[in-house]
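ok so I'm stuck.
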Amino acid sequence: MKNDFENILGMLNAAGNPKISEKMPELMQLADSADGQRLKEKFSGSDEVKKAMESGDPGSLQCLLTTVLQTEEGKRIAKHLSDMLK
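replied:
not stuck anymore, here's the structure
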């Protein structure tokens, strides 16, 4: 997940959110958190994740994000991200 997480952060940073690079150490801690690890376990080996990341297709990425946000871990991580990037 760390590599996938770094890829996602890189895409967000490229999209023009300067706070991403400023918060990188905190974001990496979030990826290594218990919730981050549980998400990694849930989605590791998932062809859906791999295809979405490789294609960069907005529809595939949106579907993946929706799936992640339906988990309790995903909801908590999203809240942390939102608070962190305010």
